[in-house]
């Protein structure tokens, strides 16, 4: 299974150091998700990261960053949105409706299906599916290696996602809740948890 790490939705002081360490520890897919933020902050964060890691980063907004920094691709949070005109690179989408999943897979390199559970990081976002719906989608072949489980995903849910046939899991709050941006400077708990996640998806 693929392990995708989603950035914390807000920027914070230690972020570049933590992300660089995660890349050093083997993170191979980071989604830069900073909804509603200024592109200047995203540029600054990218400029602080070693450029050999750019090819492992996907952006959710400010798509010009993909070509400017040689990033892996772009991700559309609106499942039915079109990529920017003339764009030819890797495209992912977030889908929140099982009836659209088959079509979205045709139009994308991969699809995040969410939310499977209530979000940990973004408190207002609730689960969109029950287990019976997910099991039915799995039996129909809608869930496959090109579909990744999103929303409230944690270490405890990796086996369930594998059993349903997901090709990967998207981890956000389960990782970032292990670091208090207001009071911590030591981020060893994040790195330790990342190692657990990596072992679980292997």
Commentary on this structure:
The protein is globular. It starts with a strand and ends with a helix. It is α/β, with parallel strands linked by helices. Strands 1-2-3-4-5-6-7-8 form an 8-stranded parallel barrel.
How is the topology of this model organized?
Elements: E1 2-6, H1 15-24, E2 30-32, H2 39-48, E3 57-59, H3 64-69, E4 73-76, E5 90-95, H4 101-106, E6 110-113, H5 131-139, E7 147-149, H6 158-164, E8 168-171, H7 173-176, H8 188-201
Helix count, DSSP H or I runs of 4 or more residues: 8
The structure class reads alpha/beta
Shape: globular
Distance between the termini: 6 Å
> Biggest β-sheet, characterized?
8 strands, parallel, barrel
Give the structure's gist in a few sentences.
This protein is α/β, with parallel strands linked by helices and 202 residues long. It is 33% helix and 16% strand. It is globular, with a radius of gyration of 16 Å.
Descriptive labels:
globular, 202 residues, single chain, alpha/beta, eight-stranded parallel beta barrel
């Amino acid at each position: 299974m693929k392990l995708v790490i989603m950035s914390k939705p807000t920027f914070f002081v230690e972020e570049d150091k933590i992300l660089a360490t995660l890349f050093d520890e083997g993170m191979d897919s980071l989604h830069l998700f900073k909804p509603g933020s200024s592109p200047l902050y995203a540029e600054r964060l990218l400029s602080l990261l070693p450029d050999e890691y750019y090819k492992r980063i996907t952006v959710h907004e400010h798509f010009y960053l993909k070509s400017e920094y040689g990033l892996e691709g772009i991700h559309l949070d609106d499942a039915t949105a079109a990529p920017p005109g003339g764009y030819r690179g890797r495209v992912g989408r977030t889908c929140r409706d099982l009836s659209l999943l088959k079509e979205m897979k045709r139009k994308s390199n991969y699809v995040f299906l969410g939310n499977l559970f209530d979000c940990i990081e973004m408190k207002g976002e609730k689960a969109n599916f029950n287990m019976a719906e997910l099991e039915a989608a799995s039996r129909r072949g809608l869930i496959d290696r090109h579909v990744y489980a999103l929303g409230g995903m944690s270490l405890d849910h990796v086996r369930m996602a594998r059993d349903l046939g997901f090709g990967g899991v998207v981890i956000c709050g389960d990782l970032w809740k292990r670091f208090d941006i207001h009071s911590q400077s030591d981020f060893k708990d994040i790195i330790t948890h990342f190692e657990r996640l990596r072992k679980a998806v292997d």
